[in-house]
Specification:
Layout: E1 13-16, H1 23-40, E2 47-51, H2 57-70, E3 75-78, H3 84-94, E4 98-102, E5 111-117, H4 126-138, H5 147-152, E6 156-159, H6 162-172, H7 175-179, E7 184-188, H8 197-201, E8 208-212, H9 234-243, E9 247-251, E10 258-261, E11 267-268, H10 270-284, E12 291-294, H11 300-308, E13 312-315, H12 319-329, E14 333-335, E15 341-343, H13 352-366, H14 370-381, E16 385-392, H15 398-407, E17 412-413, E18 416-422, E19 427-431, E20 436-441, E21 447-454, H16 457-471
Parallel strand pairs: 2-3, 2-4, 3-6, 7-8, 7-9, 12-13, 12-14
Antiparallel strand pairs: 1-5, 4-5, 9-10, 10-11, 14-15, 16-21, 17-18, 18-19, 19-20, 20-21
Helix pairs in contact: 1-2, 1-4, 10-11, 10-13
Length: 473
């Protein structure tokens, strides 16, 4: 794989381990980051370097730190697999210039990834990533210093990023009332970096926390990928029933996203979870401020914005768009369809651990079950149902598919007139009845995503099938 083929998508560069995701290419990416820092004068603060539980992630992380050291840039290397939000918060705690994070998040076990975070502890913006890509392509040589030598010279410091993050959580939420609540919770860590975190945070009280898939296993057995969606949560759904739990919570491979299962073993989709989190902050915590949403997420947010008098801004898909908009507007919350949510007074970074605590606090405060909360939400904003299809497509047809969708947009979808078309990030068709259909190419994998949100569960399948027909694959 040549340097020209390394592209930063929705959230970083990802590839198949030993094919394109190699030590050589990780070092090349690290050299590009190092040169960017040196050219912009940002190298002085050093970089946090973190990793998840995937195959060889700790060795890829060490390779990245060695390249930074070879360029005279200090790095703070995590001492073990660590959740992405904890790695990102370490940027603020260390006043670093940013972070390199070795993780492929929710991708299949064959993959690994390379994420870049900026000094504000959020995803690097598109302009920064473009500059880093340019430096990767222009790299003439990779500078390296062996880890042991770099540690001896003070250019690599191996550290534990947990303490400042855990201290900061207490500034954002009162954990003790949750700890002393009678809730019974099952946590699915999906064999990922979130293993043990929620159980440890909530230990010592009346709350019961059972954990499944809480060990490292890079093949993620029992699931196609560590993505917290219904298809991958059969183990959690079963465990909620077995333990007669009040709620099931899942964190993805790097613990920056969550999935929620109600007391009856039903999956609460990511759009409903986002709306519940916004309702919690607005209705329970009495926060006020902007809501930032990627265009693939729920229209319930606009309705909550109207009820509570707060603005709602829409961005392209990916936190490289959401994070800068959160900073620009001092947003209360930002999130996307994939189950990642970020919060004010924290950082513009998805945090599955904090989002899980907020969900538990909502249950504790209201005394409602998860299914009752969803019904309460629908009573406020009307029923909203969501679905998504992911399908592989021939890469050589990408341009033709895009041209066809642009030139021949539908006039009617499932009996409702198309009243507006967005083409800024994919093809989003807004329908007269408030439903929408979105078709877009994934920014991290060679697949097509087709999404919808509508007012009836029966219509979800029909609208998705119309989207599939429009794509023609």
């Amino acid at each position: 794989m040549s340097s020209s083929q390394i592209k930063f998508g929705t959230d970083g560069w990802r590839g198949v381990i030993a094919e394109d995701y190699t030590f050589e290419n990780v070092r090349l990416c690290s050299q590009g980051v190092a040169q960017y820092l040196l050219d912009t004068g940002k190298a002085k603060g050093g970089m946090v370097v973190g990793h998840d539980t995937r195959f060889a992630s700790e060795h890829f992380a060490a390779a990245a730190a060695e390249v930074l050291a070879g360029n005279g840039i200090a790095s703070f290397l995590v001492n073990k697999a660590t959740p992405t939000p904890v790695i990102s918060y370490a940027i603020l705690a260390r006043r670093a210039a940013g972070a390199i994070n070795i993780t492929a998040s929710h991708n299949p076990p064959t993959d690994n990834g390379f994420k870049v975070r900026s000094e504000y502890a959020g995803a690097a913006d598109p302009e920064t990533l473009t500059e880093i890509e340019k430096h990767i392509k222009q790299a003439q040589a990779i500078k390296r210093m062996p880890k042991a030598e770099a540690i001896a010279k003070g250019l690599i410091e191996v550290f534990d990023p947990a303490p400042p993050y855990l201290t900061h959580l207490n500034d954002l939420i009162a954990i003790e009332p949750i700890r002393q609540s009678p809730l019974h919770v099952v946590v699915d860590s999906m064999w990922g970096a979130g293993m043990g975190w929620l159980k440890s945070i909530l230990a010592g009280g009346d709350i019961k926390v059972e954990e499944i898939h809480g060990e490292r296993n890079p093949v993620f057995p029992g699931m196609s990928r560590p993505e917290p969606i219904a298809d991958n949560l059969s183990g959690l759904i079963e465990a909620v029933g077995q333990h007669k739990a009040d709620v099931g919570l899942a964190t993805d491979g790097d613990a920056d996203r969550i999935g929620v299962v109600d007391e009856n073993g039903n999956f609460i989709n990511q759009l409903q979870v986002y709306a519940l989190l916004a309702y919690y902050l607005l209705g329970v915590r009495k926060w006020r401020g902007a809501i930032i949403k990627a265009l693939s997420t729920t229209s319930m947010l606009e309705k909550l914005g109207e009820i509570y008098g707060v603005p709602v801004y829409e961005t392209g898909v990916g936190f490289k768009y959401v994070a800068p908009k959160m900073l620009e507007t001092n947003a209360m919350i930002g999130g996307e369809e994939s189950g990642g949510y970020a919060f004010r007074n924290h950082m513009p970074e998805r945090d599955g651990i904090l989002a899980s605590l907020f969900i538990l606090d909502l249950l504790r405060y209201t005394g409602k079950t998860p299914s009752q909360l969803v019904q309460h939400l629908f009573d406020l904003v009307g029923p909203h149902y969501y679905g998504r299809i992911d399908t592989a497509y021939p890469l050589q047809q990408r341009e033709a598919i895009g041209r066809r969708l642009l030139v021949h947009p539908p006039k009617v979808v499932d009996g409702s007139q198309v009243v507006r078309v967005q083409t800024d990030d994919g093809f989003k068709y807004h329908l007269a009845d408030g439903s929408w259909l979105l078709i877009r190419f994934s920014g991290t994998e060679p697949i097509m995503r087709i999404y919808t949100e509508t007012n009836s569960p029966d219509r979800v399948r029909r609208i998705l099938e119309e989207g599939r027909r429009l794509v023609g694959i």
